[in-house]
Amino acid sequence: MPHIQQLDRHVSELIAAGEVVERPASVVKELVENAIDAGSSAVVVEIQRGGMGLIRVTDNGCGIAPAELPTAFLRHATSKLRTGEDLGRIGTLGFRGEALAAIAAVSRVEICTREKGADAGARLRLEGGTPGAVEETGAAEGTTISVRDLFFNTPARLKFMRKDSAETAAVAGLMQHLALSHPDISFKFIKDGTEALHTPGDGRLDSTIYASLGRDFARSLIPVSGRGGEVAVEGFVTKPLMGRGSRSMQVFFVNGRFIKSQLLTAAVEEGYRNQIMKGKFPGCVLCVTLPVTAVDVNVHPAKTQVKFAREREVFDAVYHTVLDCLDADGAPRSAAPQASQTLTAPARQDFFKTMDAATFRAQQTGGEKKPAASQTPSAVRGWNTERPAASVRMADILPPKPARGPALGSAPASAVTRQTEEAKREGTVFGGSHAPVKDSAPAAQARPAVQAQPSRPVPSPAPAPVQTALYPEAKAAAESTRTERPFVPAIPQPRTGEDLPGQQTLDKAEAPWRMVGEVLHTYIICESAQGEVWLIDKHAAHERVNFDRLMASHEPPMQQMLLRPVAAELGREDAALLLEHLDTLESLGFSCEDFGGDTVLVRQIPADLDASDVTATLEELAQKLRSGRSSEEKREALLHTMACKASIKGGWTSDPAELRVLVEKVQRGEVKYCPHGRPVAVKLTKYQIEKMFGRA
């Protein structure tokens, strides 16, 4: 039987550090929260190599007395609690007194601090939790703490760290949340010498959202404000049409503390019920304020989860605040104007006139006066309404052509012109068969037709025109002798019952089912030979077909190069996660690269995917990468998303041939369930239908 003994102090400190310090972002969280509790108005955070090389936090708070510096790095040493009753009314971000001790146990720490009004500052260095001597030094008012070589003495923890880009993204996401929780403090975040975040600290939440989460997200928000009992809710939520593919942009604060709460998430999404597209999630930045005695923040080591004393009251306050805001945003902004205040346009008299033919001819010949200029809208606008009469011919306006004599050996111009006009009226022009041209002048038929008598024959590839207007009997004889050329196809068609040489015609067996049609642009109706009626969900069936094809293929799907690359704005953690799995995205047909901040630039996408679905698809892929366990499970989850996005959607108009292919696969038993487990088809027997109508 093993003996019980007390752990070594160093081992116990490493265990305690493992509960508080998981990664560089955990160190930044503890240090920045201490800076906020110190009453700072400006906080600067610098990191190198994702925080593994250096983490430096500088604030202008109250500072630490030199004599208390060694005590600050002892376990359970804090200035925020005095008695046990204080645990029931915690109003600060930090209170346990374990953060500095845990950080110092797994890194090399240097702290420089100066109290307000003090003449000089103090410096203290620690390595692996062992403190040195306190030294007097020059320093600005406030505190600067530097953490280097994180986990240098715990190789077991060091090997589980992710790439520098992923750790940097985690710190950046944390800084966003901290900045949003305190808009009255100016936060600056510098990564590897480059400024990535800088908030104004003007106390306005909207300006902090703009600086932290970007312009596009800030423009999609509407303000909310409400109260239920002792619970006050303020902040911003996205418009229903601006739903996102994941919950990564849902940010909640309780008494200035960033938390993750399923209760608040459910309350917000319940407020959007029946107002947001299925599969989309609202984004929000909500600040919940309630008495400190009504919330317990001492339920999680990282203090990211809380417990409410009256959960129902908190749920109702958030739900009704969001619902009232959405209802007010969808209502008309102002009442409709009264009928007496409505401006009416002048009547458009005589703009489109209706008259008979006799009135029109009388107008053109001057038999009726034109309507007065004051009666037309053109006169009201000051336009010139005087136009030339319609009886004026173009020949009277255009200048006359210069007279030219007939060419040598040609017929007189007047005779050739009359011959051509007569041939046009009969539908034959120089032996061609064109559509007959109607003469607009009725008097043209009364002109004498004079046959042209050329002095010498003019070569022509076609026979001379037959003057059918002069000789009707010649027209009848020409039509009787005209023969149609038989149509000869370019590819000889086999006669009935014959096959082309080397080919064999296979008679396609008639399918034992009949596709009746489609209803609601979503469900296919099919009748089988056994008298059964099938309702087939075309989206679910097509999704299963795509999923089976992607699972069976060992090659990347066909890609399409985008003419205009898509800049997908995601959350910082989602963007970092996708950039960490670029090889996985490449196997799915995506070609992505880092575009800075929380944006991923997409240059190639799978051929089956529409460019408008790129951002939503990447958001879902990031969610699947985060939740999947093994590599095979992650691949299946990613292919689920790809198959869903590439499938035809319910409500789309589909080609009957496309629907017939889906029906064939369902009737053959190849497709039964969609990748999410939903049924693809529902069967109604003849007995069930007759029973509905009372016939059975």
Question: How does this model look, in words?
Answer:
- The chain is α+β, with helices and mostly antiparallel strands.
- Among the domains are: 9-198, 2-Layer Sandwich (Heat Shock Protein 90), CATH 3.30.565.10; 220-328, Ribosomal Protein S5, domain 2, CATH 3.30.230; 515-683, MutL, C-terminal domain, regulatory subdomain (Ribosomal Protein S8, Chain: A, domain 1, 2-Layer Sandwich), CATH 3.30.1370.100.
- Helix content is 32%, strand content 19%.
- The chain is built from 22 helices and 25 strands.
- Strand 3 (108-114) and strand 4 (121-127) form a beta hairpin.
- Helix 2 packs parallel to helix 6 (164-181), helix 17 (572-580) packs across helix 19 (614-627) and helix 19 packs antiparallel against helix 20 (631-645).
- The relative contact order is 0.07.
Key terms for this structure?
single chain, 696 residues, alpha+beta, Heat Shock Protein 90, Ribosomal Protein S5, domain 2, Ribosomal Protein S8, Chain: A, domain 1, nine-stranded mixed sheet, five-stranded mixed sheet, 22 helices, 32% helix, 19% strand
The share of residues in extended strands comes to 15-25%
Distance between the termini: 76 Å
Radius of gyration: 42 Å
Q: How does the helix and strand content classify structurally?
A: alpha+beta
Number of DSSP strands? 25
**How would you characterize the largest beta sheet?**
9 strands, mixed
Mean pLDDT: 76
CATH architecture of the domain at 9-198: 2-Layer Sandwich
Counting H and I runs of at least 4 residues, what is the number of helices? 22
Low-confidence spans: 331-352, 368-399, 401-420, 423-456, 462-471
